[in-house]
Request: fold
Amino acid sequence: MAEENNGHGFLTGLIIGGVIGTALTFWLIERTGQRGRRGIGGGSRAGDLATSIKDEVSTRVKDFLKHTLEEGSDAARKTRSNLEERLKRESEE
Reply:
């Protein structure tokens, strides 16, 4: 069964981890920037840019995770179906 995986799980985890790490980085940068700008009085363009980037990344992460979870569910469903068929054939023999 491990031979059938071909490293797809690792690659998926790597991509998801990278996307989540990027989203967290933007979120933390924007959050830190808000505290730093309070005393300066300027920098609203930087805050607006950070917010729009955060929103865009957040939307893309949500879409990516939704798609990945759907693919994972489909793969699990197919694997379960294949295993059930295999067990049924073996029990009939």
Summary: Residues 83 and 89 are 10 Å apart (CA to CA).
